[in-house]
Amino acid sequence: MMNNGDRRSAHTGTLRRAGYAAGLGILLFSAGYGIYESGVIGRLYSAISGKTVTIPSAAPYSRADMEAARKAYAKDAKASAPGMPVGADGYYIPPAEDDIPKGPYGDAIRRGMKIFTDTGAMVKDHVGNSLACANCHLDSGRRENAAPMWAAYASYPAFRSKTGTISTLEDRIMGCFTYSMNAQASSSGKPPPAGSDVYRDLMTYMAWMADGLPAGNKPRGALYPKVAKPKDDYDVGRGLAVYQQNCALCHGPNGQGTREANGKMRFPPLWGAESYNWGAGMARIDTAAGFIWANMPLGKPYSLTEQEAWDVAAFINSHERPKDTRQTGTVAEALEKYHEGEQSYYGKVLGGKLLGVGTDATSGP
Q: Domain Cytochrome c, which positions (predicted)?
């Protein structure tokens, strides 16, 4: 039987071990928290899953901070060099519309912004559908994770696998007119010619938005997020249910968009003759899923699950649309040359219809 002395000794030992355990726990927690704050865990998770992990920035740096640093650095080379303006969420902060300067440069910025937000009216001879640049690049091209234009300006010239060449920013915009704006159906039948003031004004607008962003930098939120293909694949039937519950109110039950009382398109058509053609990046299911997951329904980003985003992207892109401008022969030939390996319904048969022939060769939207 244990005497009082033994009990006191055992009790003391228990307290000592508890103290050691508590101390070790605090030490491990501190170390783990330090590793988390360093971003190592986020980078590891991103590398494994292919998803972007958002870790809020601990030190916001405003545009006012940048301007003050610019002035100090101009006077004294020993002063701290100006940094990139970022918010508490770690995303780059483009200048506000109220910051557009006066004079010819500011006039060009405003023209570029107007072209961007009301493309069909401003460049009507080269737009063959009811879309505007701002439909795919939200908040007038400012929104992170919606392929913002400040990131595009800092990223070109660049090699593009789609063209197999080095593309300038003008080339890239010309491609958007060709595919997303379906220029083939416009009155001119083609995008604005190289050197057009349309490109000059758009690029001036983009350059102004990128003021403070290092050239060649690919900041967070530069494109659409990559959303891994779900283990249950994607399904048009499930996508229809997601569409009816979350998308039809704005884009219409038949996907043809909705208009204001004056006839101006309020929410864009998602398929049919007035939408993007089969050569557009958004016609790929994985690209559309990333955009939808991060940005839709409008005002409710990340409210859909990744599975729902893939399913509704599949539903939207399971409908016919204008044919790929590059298609000069059969759908099968274009599929092999331009769409092989894509997450796309191009060249597939759904509901007894071959997709890719274009809306001009089918009845209805």
A: 107-213, 234-320
Q: How far apart are CA 219 and CA 45, in angstroms?
A: 18
Domain with CATH 1.10.760.10 in the chain: 91-210, 236-355
Q: What Rg value do the Cα atoms of the chain yield, rounded?
A: 26
CB-based contact 116:141 (threshold 8 Å): yes
> How many Å apart are CA 258 and CA 135, to the nearest integer?
13
Distance separating alpha carbons of residues 128 and 120, to the nearest angstrom = 8
pTM of the entire predicted model:
0.82
| Architecture of the domain whose range is 236-355 | Orthogonal Bundle (1.10)
SS3 15: helix
**What is the DSSP code (8-state) at residue 280?**
S
Residue 322 class from Cβ within 10 Å (0-12 exposed, 13-18 middle, 19+ buried)?
A: buried
Residue 68, SS3? helix
91-210 has which fold? Answer: Cytochrome Bc1 Complex; Chain D, domain 2 (1.10.760)
Other beta carbons within 10 angstroms of residue 190's beta carbon come to: 15
* Nearest CA-CA partner of 365 in 243, 221, 249, 269: 269
Among residues 228, 307, 319, the alpha carbon closest in space to that of 275 is found at 319
Output phi, psi for 258, to 5 deg: -130, 150
Q: What does 91-143 look like in DSSP terms, one character per residue?
A: -B-PPPGGGPPSSHHHHHHHHHHHHHHSHHHHTGGG--SS--HHHHSHHHHT-
Give yes or no for residue 133 having a pLDDT over 50.
yes
* Cα angle, residue 195 at apex, residues 191 and 198 outer, rounded to 5°: 60
Give per-residue pLDDT as tens, 146-200: 999 999 999 999 999 999 999 999 999 999 999 999 999 999 999 999 999 999 9
CA separation, residue 240 to residues 235, 256, 275 (Å): 9, 15, 18
Q: Which amino acid is at 2?
A: M
Terminal alpha carbon distance of the chain: 90
